[in-house]
Design a protein that fits this description.
Elements (H helix, E strand, L loop, with lengths): L1 H23 L4 E5 L5 E5 L14 H10 L4 H33 L4 H16 L3 H6 L5 H24 L2 H8 L2 H13 L5 H28 L8 H32 L3 H16 L8 H10 L2 H27 L3 H22 L7 H19 L6
Antiparallel strand pairs: 1-2
Helix pairs in contact: 3-13, 3-14, 4-11, 4-13, 6-10, 6-11, 7-9, 8-10, 8-14, 9-14, 9-15, 10-13, 11-13
């Protein structure tokens, strides 16, 4: 009788030591069963700090790890809020140097994107082998994120060539409606009438404000050549395609982080590393000659703004990835992104004063704020 008893103790000790080993090697969430038939969920060791000396045993550690998930829902809201605030603040700040770069070289959006990819890869290059070998996120999720990221970059860049930038910004702000459709079709997520009214109100506000800015810019500038019908149709489809790609990308990031832990650096690095040879070789004529042109011009102010734009955008993408992973749903992610786009539009408008933004812009801003508050108040699950 003593032999099975010792055997069970040995099996239990082995399972416990495997849990400790995996937590020490950066496994974020571990589901395992103990020999007594009970299943536990073990979370990362970082949540087990600051305990009394007598509690620093394997048994007590596993008990704390197994019960930690009960408080996750309580902590998720402030974690998402802090990530959302950081994403919006850094994202809005990044538009200032980016706008300065476009002012000095209007045809440089793809070149700026190329410089951003290179900076992200170089930043993580010293431990790139570890990020690739010891992946927390499976390859199938990385493949989906890379594909959707490439689609977003390619469609958005080409749309900005075919359509005026103000029109692209206005159409891009319909992403909340795209998010509702994606949630319903792919995830069977239903929203209440009150929530949908909030979405519609936010969309009306952002379209009103963007349309007012577009009209003011058109009246202040010289009459331009008419937009070809083919360019408008293709550009329109590309804008909506980029919005759809962004919605699916946010969903893929959220699912990966929920299942395998929040691995922002790994996701950002692998996405940009694999996107580099997929996006830019076919459009090198928009990147390579511009590099030579900038080198010959030796415009230090332009180079400074490029570095500031790349640095701030890098931080903004990390914050946006964390926000998407912590968001309670895709529509909340789209709401944060819509508010960020509106504030970016506001910053750009103030950078170009005079003239000041028209009354329609402020009317749209008020409608946007009211729609946002209405959606947040009705964000409980629909009956």
């Amino acid at each position: 009788m003593s032999k099975p008893h010792h055997l069970n103790k040995w099996q239990a000790a082995k399972v416990k030591m495997e849990a400790v080993y995996k937590m020490k090697h950066r496994t974020h969430v571990l589901h395992m069963g103990l020999p007594d038939g009970h299943n536990i969920t073990v979370h990362s060791q970082e949540h087990l700090d600051a305990v009394e000396e007598e509690d620093r045993t394997v048994n007590r550690m596993l008990q704390r790890a197994a019960t930690k998930h009960r408080t996750d829902d309580e902590k998720e809201s402030p974690r998402f809020l802090s990530a959302a605030v950081a994403s919006v603040c850094v994202g809005v700040a990044s538009v200032v140097p980016y706008n300065m770069v476009l002012k000095g070289d209007p045809g440089s959006p793809l070149f700026v994107s190329f410089a951003l990819h290179i900076a992200i890869i170089l930043k993580s290059l010293p431990h790139a082998a570890k990020l690739i070998r010891e992946r927390s996120i499976p390859l199938k999720y990385h493949a989906a994120i890379i594909f959707l990221g490439c689609m977003f970059t390619t469609l958005k860049s080409d749309a900005y060539v075919r359509l005026p930038a103000s029109l692209c910004m206005m159409l891009s702000n319909l992403r909340m409606i795209v998010g509702v459709g994606v949630q319903y079709i792919l995830f069977k997520k239903k929203y209440s009438i009150s929530q949908l009214c909030g979405v519609a109100t936010v969309t009306v506000g952002i379209v009103w404000a963007s349309q007012a800015m577009q009209s003011a810019n058109a009246s202040a500038s010289q009459p331009s050549t008419s937009l070809a019908a083919s360019d408008f149709t293709v550009g329109l489809m590309e804008v909506f395609g980029s919005s759809l790609s962004l919605a699916l990308l946010s969903s893929a990031v959220k699912m990966a982080f929920e299942k395998y832990g929040e691995s922002v650096e790994e996701q950002i690095f692998i996405q940009h590393l694999c996107s580099l040879p997929l996006v830019f070789p076919s459009q090198w004529d928009k990147v390579g000659p511009r590099m030579l042109d900038w080198f010959e011009r030796r415009d230090l102010w332009l180079i400074f703004n490029l570095c500031a734009s790349v640095g701030s955008t890098f931080v903004a993408r990390n914050a946006a990835a964390a926000m998407a992973g912590r968001s309670p749903n895709l529509l909340m992610t789209q709401l944060v992104q819509t508010l960020e786009c509106f504030l970016q539009l506001l910053v750009v408008a103030f950078l170009r004063v005079p003239p000041w933004p028209p009354l329609g812009f402020w009317g749209g801003a008020i409608v946007l704020v009211l729609g946002t508050l209405h959606y947040l108040r009705s964000s409980a699950a629909p009956p």
